[in-house]
Design brief:
single chain, 225 residues, alpha/beta, Nucleotidyltransferase, domain 5, five-stranded mixed β-sheet, 9 helices, 16% strand, globular, DnaQ, hydrolase
Length: 225
Amino acid sequence: MIFDWLKKRKEDPENSPEFWKAYLKNFEEKLPEEISDVRFVVLDTETTGFSYDNDRMLCIGAVSVCNNKIDMGDNFEVYIKQERFDPESVKIHGIIRNEKISTLTEEEAVKQFLKYIENSILVAHHASFDITMINRALKRLEVPKLKNKVLDTEVLYRRTKILSNLIDRNKRYSLDDIAEAYTIDVTDRHTAAGDAFITAIAFLKILGRLKQKEKLTPAGLVKIK
């Protein structure tokens, strides 16, 4: 069964394809102990819908954050050939069928993404969705899930509220909510690259507020739930 085969491949990376071996090699180095030394990759995906089984990614956008700065020269954006088309989702992401843009196969897009992220800590808003979509693509390539640590800006934002005693613990926060709270321009909202940039700004503002209340380390950030 494919599950057993994937498990064996995870345990024996020497049997893995070269792109996966190269990705795994990044994790031989430990992450820095200071947040200022960590490379964060803030990402967003645009998809044909919300079904992990039936829908596919249309675009992956990302930008890196290091030493409390967004590095606009270190960014990533790929459009993926559409295997499935949902006209309803076009209202959100605006990517039409057969649009005249350069596209890659899902396989090539994911390989390039792995090469870009290396062992960085990944950041996204409602991160479980984006990470699961990427992991499903990896599963189709018959390799294991992402190994990177992951942060969710909604979770981190909620932490700022908890520390300030301003929280309804059941409240959900959209990226628009956070952008409004921090007066972030949302002109490029609902493009993968645009949402990644907005999320990166939000992430830096959230970090600034968390630092005012508690000592932060990369390991501590990852443990915030």
